[in-house]
Amino acid sequence: MDYPTSARNFLIYAFTLVLLMFLPSCQYEFIEEDAPDPNKEYSFKDDILPIFEAKSCTSCHRSGSTYPDLTPTNAYNSIVPNLVNLSNPESSKIYSYPHPATTTHGFQKYSTAQANIILEWIKQGAINN
Ligand code: HEC
């Protein structure tokens, strides 16, 4: 199809403009969907215990059964300090053992988001808050 020069120039101009508008969306944004909120202080009671409930960890890990006891009353003393390594949080057993990438604990695992919350809580000092 033959356009007059001015019309063709306009089309080229418009096309370039649209292209430029979309360019910024090509930039990478390092927002990890499952990443914990770095500005939030994680609470053992409100953030950690509900994970043990939601994942039915307590169906096996309860008083008189398999260690660690993850029921609300006993969970903290069962986990800290034995299963937590404050100087190397990633190696904490309460984080690594039921991690979604592990093959050792075949019973029940965290979701990636849950594992990240556990890790963040440990990094923040594994406090009984
Ligand atoms: C179906 C039963 C069952 C469920 C559900 C279960 N576990 Fe376990 N877990 C076990 C058994 C049995 C062991 C010990 C044998 C082994 O090491 O695999 C164990 C071991 C562990 C250990 C290692 C303890 C140590 O000192 O070696 C951790 C930590 C743990 N479980 C956490 C969890 C968490 C957190 C959940 C929930 C996401 C969970 N488990 C769900 C049965 C279960």
Briefly, what is this?
By secondary structure, the protein is mainly alpha-helical. The chain has five helices and no strands.
Largest sheet descriptor: none
Sequence of secondary-structure elements: HHHHH
Question: Averaging pLDDT over every residue, what do you get?
Answer: 88
Tell me, briefly, the overall form.
elongated
- The share of residues in helices is 25-40%
What portion of residues belong to β-strands? under 5%
Rg for CA atoms: 25 Å
Oligomer: single chain
Number of helices: 5
Tell me the number of strands: 0
Low-confidence segments, given as residue ranges, are none
Q: Measure the end-to-end span.
A: 72 Å
Ligands in the model, by name, code or SMILES, are: heme C
Question: Overview of this structure, please?
Answer:
With 129 residues, this protein is an all-alpha fold. It has a domain at 44-123. It has five helices and no strands. The protein has helices spanning 5-22, 44-54, 75-79, 93-96, 112-123. Helix 2 runs antiparallel to helix 5 (112-123). It starts with a helix and ends in a 6-residue tail after the last helix. The mean pLDDT is 88.
